């Protein structure tokens, strides 16, 4: 099965072209067209401006004009310009010493007071303007590439009257939900290289395995992908990031301990991977990424109706299909802990099959955690993909502690073999093993990995359904052919989907999803959200400055 073929033909061929046209009408984010011109001769804006500055010839004529500038203009000159003038004088002294002349003070003063016509721009004015643009551009570039993150304490993150709850452990981060009077946020906490207390004897005996700290460079990829996905419905809302430093709070320690007890009850053999907050020191530092509240993780959501099965599955498929199209996206870690559910509309009774099966539950989904993901900026020719190198830790593929571990092996097996054969754990013991296309690389674009996670989702939904068995059976019967092409264990002679977009096309062709739904009638809603985390001093100052205002109930309803 070749990775280069992303569209597979199956079912009734006569309908395929129509379905593809329908999917092509999906609402897209503004198209980011590449800049015109020869890409091989492009230079960044700073280089171009600098070249123009260096190309300006300052000769005797220019020097004379500079003497004619008003005193006000000279006062506003920047140091760089003065330095350039000095250098020019030195060059003139070397090349033409016989022309050296020192004007009398009276003449210099009168020359400086001579006004410069405003409607006749001079060469040195252009030089001054270009120099100013250079400095402004450099300052802007430095601000973008070297953002100054604010540093907070754990007391700032969660005040005594606020609520903090640990809800998950991601690829290399702990995930908490923070709620206060300004709203609710999800924060991902990544430990940076910094000191921490050594394990106690009891912690060593319990088998605690400390997650290694991560340099900021390790998570730049996830943050970049988050920016690319920000305008696509179904992906998490990014708020802010900052550094948190210092010892823990009582609330943080208590929720950490409660989470570990809960995990032990569910899986007695599970090891604790993240250090207890009791070991934090004054210099222990974390990078915290604040996100919008995505709702309840699928693993904690009770599935009770057939409409929930339809909507959760296809909301995820549509989100992935859009991300494939816009940034060549692969999630690569989309288990039940990284998919969140919210009830955003009232549940509606499902109509006749002719009306479709999608959009009745009133649910919305949010896809989380892009730590292992892959993406690419399509606005840049020959852009370097952003992808986490999964070969750095092969234990991801040899582990068998959770159901999703098999999907990791399926992904790696596909990159090695380009078919649906899943190699056993012991076959994943050599990093960068040679596959059909050479040494394995996670930079390549293989959207079939999204299909593997959709297959995992389908099996999870049907095996964890708690509602009426008749409804479950109805869903499985209606989607029997879908599962045939989705099933990673299907025979070699069975066609398969090559990407999430294929799955959406199939649903449209089958009449399960209407065109108006793809155009936005029942899709996830994008929202802008501000950070709810502020230092204590800032909160106090804001509260003192505000005057009590009676709020209009009508304006509240409009929100």
Automatic annotation (TrEMBL):
Organism superkingdom: Eukaryota
EC primary class: transferase
Catalysed reaction equations from the record: L-seryl-[protein] + ATP = O-phospho-L-seryl-[protein] + ADP + H(+); L-threonyl-[protein] + ATP = O-phospho-L-threonyl-[protein] + ADP + H(+)
Residue segments, region Disordered: 1-46, 61-127, 537-559
Basic residues composition-biased segments: 549-559
InterPro entries per UniProt: GSG2_C, Kinase-like_dom_sf
Compositional bias annotation for Basic and acidic residues: 86-110, 537-548
Single GO cellular component term: nucleus
Gene Ontology biological-process entries: intracellular signal transduction; mitotic cell cycle
The enzyme's E.C. designation: 2.7.11.1
This protein's UniProt keywords: ATP-binding, Kinase, Nucleotide-binding, Serine/threonine-protein kinase, Transferase
Residue ranges of every copy of the Serine/threonine-protein kinase haspin C-terminal domain listed in the record: 394-501
Pfam families xref list: Haspin_kinase
GO molecular function, one term: histone H3T3 kinase activity
Name this protein carries in UniProt: non-specific serine/threonine protein kinase
Provenance organism: Fusarium sporotrichioides
Lineage: Eukaryota, Fungi, Dikarya, Ascomycota, Pezizomycotina
């Amino acid at each position: 099965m070749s990775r280069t073929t992303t569209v597979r033909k199956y079912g009734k061929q006569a309908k395929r072209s129509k379905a593809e046209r329908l999917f092509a009408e999906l609402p897209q984010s503004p198209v980011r067209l590449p800049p015109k011109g020869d890409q091989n001769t492009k230079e960044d804006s700073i280089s171009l401006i600098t070249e123009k500055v260096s190309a300006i010839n300052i000769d005797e004529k220019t020097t004379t004009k500079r003497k004619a500038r008003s005193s006000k203009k000279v006062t506003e000159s920047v140091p760089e310009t003065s330095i350039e003038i000095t250098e020019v004088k030195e060059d003139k002294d070397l090349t033409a010493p016989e022309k050296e002349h020192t004007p009398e003070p009276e003449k210099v003063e009168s020359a400086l007071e001579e006004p410069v016509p405003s409607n006749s721009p001079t060469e040195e004015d252009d030089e001054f303007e270009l120099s100013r643009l250079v400095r402004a551009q450099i300052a802007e570039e430095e601000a973008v590439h070297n953002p100054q993150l604010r540093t907070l304490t754990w007391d700032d993150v969660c005040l005594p009257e606020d609520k903090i709850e640990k809800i998950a452990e991601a690829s290399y981060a702990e995930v908490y939900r923070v709620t206060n009077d300004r709203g609710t946020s999800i924060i991902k906490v990544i430990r940076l290289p910094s000191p921490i207390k050594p394990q106690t004897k009891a912690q060593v005996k319990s088998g605690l395995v400390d997650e290694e700290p991560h340099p900021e460079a390790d998570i730049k990829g996830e943050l970049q992908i988050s920016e690319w996905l920000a305008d696509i419905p179904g992906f998490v809302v990014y708020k802010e990031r900052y550094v948190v430093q210092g010892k823990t709070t009582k609330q943080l320690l208590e929720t950490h301990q409660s989470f570990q007890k809960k995990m032990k009850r569910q899986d007695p053999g599970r090891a604790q991977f993240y250090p207890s907050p009791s070991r934090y020191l004054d210099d222990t530092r974390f990078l915290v990424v604040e996100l919008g509240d995505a709702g309840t993780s699928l693993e904690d959501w009770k599935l009770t109706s057939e409409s929930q099965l339809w909507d959760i599955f296809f909301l995820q498929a549509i989100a992935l299909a859009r991300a494939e199209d816009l940034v060549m996206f692969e999630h690569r870690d989309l288990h039940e802990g990284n998919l969140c559910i919210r009830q955003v509309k009232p549940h509606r009774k499902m109509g006749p099959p002719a009306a479709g099966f999608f959009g009745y539950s009133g649910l919305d989904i949010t896809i989380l955690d892009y730590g292992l993901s892959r993406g690419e900026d399509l606005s840049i020719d020959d852009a370097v993909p952003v992808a986490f190198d999964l070969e750095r830790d092969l234990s991801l593929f040899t582990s068998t502690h959770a159901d999703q571990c098999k999907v990791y092996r399926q992904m790696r097996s596909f990159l090695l073999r380009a078919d649906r054969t899943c190699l056993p754990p012991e076959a994943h013991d050599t990093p960068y093993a040679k596959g059909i296309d050479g040494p394995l690389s996670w930079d390549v674009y293989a959207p079939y990995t999204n299909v593997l996670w959709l297959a995992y989702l389908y099996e999870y939904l049907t095996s964890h359904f708690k509602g009426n068995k008749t409804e479950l059976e109805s869903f499985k019967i209606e989607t029997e052919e879908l599962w045939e092409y989705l099933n990673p264990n299907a025979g070699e002679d069975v066609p398969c989907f090559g990407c999430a977009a294929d799955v959406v096309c199939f649903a449209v062709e089958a009449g399960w999803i209407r065109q108006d739904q793809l155009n936005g009638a029942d899709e996830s809603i994008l929202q802008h959200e501000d950070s709810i985390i502020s230092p204590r001093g800032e909160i106090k100052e804001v509260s003192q400055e505000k005057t009590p205002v009676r709020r209009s109930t009508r304006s509240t309803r409009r929100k």
